[in-house]
Design brief:
Rossmann fold; 7 strands; alpha/beta
């Protein structure tokens, strides 16, 4: 059984992220079908998968449990959550890394900082600017400004998308003190 392919940005940085996460779980925010979660599970990480509708991912995990990939399936923990309507349920320094690909909600940036352990990585990749999705994308410089307060930016790129920008960011939370 083949696993879905992760975002190329995630695939490239996953080994670094997994190594830095230590024994803490990786949080995959708006995980969809789990394509990015699987790469971390393959690297031995426990992964918390968050999305509004996890039924397709749950069904796929069920099929994995009957295959040689059962160990990967067992590293995934599903947490249904409507990121727009529900309050952030996670605590301080609960995750070794946070991955957020193709879903952007500005209010989550502060939640990510709170829930990420010091020296943990945040990988953020907004949707590319195509069609009308630019309406959900940030204004130029906004993400960089918010992240710069608590993170060291190891990679940051913005691409024009109408009046907004698409963002790829790889940031490491600064240690406390």
């Amino acid at each position: 059984m083949l696993l879905p392919q992760p975002s190329p940005f995630v695939k490239k940085l996953a080994p670094t992220i997994a190594a830095a996460a230590k024994d803490l779980p990786v949080l995959d925010v708006a995980c969809g079908g789990g394509r990015n979660a699987f790469v971390f599970a393959q690297l031995g990480c426990q992964v918390v998968c968050v999305d509004k509708d996890l039924s397709p991912l749950d069904a796929f995990i069920g099929r994995l449990r009957g295959s040689p990939l059962v160990d990967i399936a067992n590293r995934l923990r599903l947490h249904p959550l409507d990121l727009v309507l529900n309050e952030w349920p996670f605590g301080k320094a609960e995750f070794g890394a946070i991955i957020n690909v193709h879903f952007f909600l500005p209010a989550l940036l502060h939640q990510f900082e709170m829930s990420l352990w010091p020296r943990g990585y945040l990988l953020l990749e907004t949707a590319p600017g195509c069609g009308g999705n630019y309406r959900d994308l940030p204004k130029a410089g906004h993400v960089k400004q918010v992240l710069s307060a608590g993170f060291g930016l190891e990679y940051y790129r913005e691409g024009r998308a109408g009046p907004a920008v698409s963002v790829k960011a790889f940031a490491r939370k600064r240690p406390i003190g």
